Amino acid sequence: MSARKTFLLVEDDGFDVEFVEKEFSQAPLHISLRAVRDGVQAQHYVEGKGEYADREKYPLPDVILLDLKMPRMDGFEFLSWLRSRSDPHRFTPVVVMSSSPLPEDVERAYTLGANSYLIKPVNWEEFRDRIRALGVYWSSHVSTPENISLT
Questions:
Q1: Percentages helix, strand, coil for the chain, rounded to the nearest 5?
Q2: pLDDT confidence of 87, banded at 50, 70, 90?
Q3: Rounded to two decimals, what is the model's pTM?
């Protein structure tokens, strides 16, 4: 059985947060979802600042689900900040989840170090299927440096 994975959802749309929470809670996955509203809160979460210092309550994310269009610090700025760090957290997989199908947004996200780019479909059933597939893939089938035992 897979170990529990922590997903950090960086999303300012409350409906999308509830939707992802619901889909992950109903799927037979080993995912613990934490959500923050913008890039500034995501920075604080990764750094363990303020309320996020309690790593029992706010464990470091194994995967970051990142919206692009947010107040204060957008997803591009957060991704640039994360990938510029000198600690191992810079390697945390980032899945951009955006409603933007613009080629320049997709290209910029990958240039900044996104591992995947998911365009949020308008149809909620299609979005649900993508969220479930994303959860299964990143929680059950992907190896990261943190979850490989070097013996």
A1: 45, 15, 40
A2: confident
A3: 0.89
